[in-house]
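Chain A, query sequence.
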Amino acid sequence: MSETTPNGAAPNASTQQPSLRVLAQYLKDHSFENPRAPASFRDTGGAPTIEVNVDVNARGLGSDQFEVELSVSARARRGQEIVFLVETTYAGVFEILGVPEAQIEPILLIECPRLLFPFARQIVAETTNSGNYPPVMLDPIDFLGIYQRNLAARAEAGPAALNA
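Chain A, predicted structure.
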């Protein structure tokens, strides 16, 4: 037996199958700085130390649609000198249907960044390679672990932080 709705109306959200759809994905912001080029190409001081930072932000765009931004920065240093800096924000618009409100935040901050990460990783690798450096191949990121640590920090900060 199938369930029908009158006049082609949308099914009730409570009976709708949960779904996550990528409606768009795009490079939102990107920069590369190579301040010591071409001198940095002749440096024999060994491989630079690379520091990677990751941030995820999400915001609602209206009914059931959200923009998620994955920001990645990689800064290479030899001693105190910056060899290169790459910063990229890769974003996507996602539609989430049939999911309880309490599960929306984890989807936005865990699952959506997992879908965006391979593209941001490729952009960082290609950019550093285009800057005449070996490509920076970002290690996989534990978005679940990041989410859990942030949730614990918010809980420790008190009830006001949980609603922030």
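The chain has one domain: 17-157. DSSP finds four helices and four strands in the chain.
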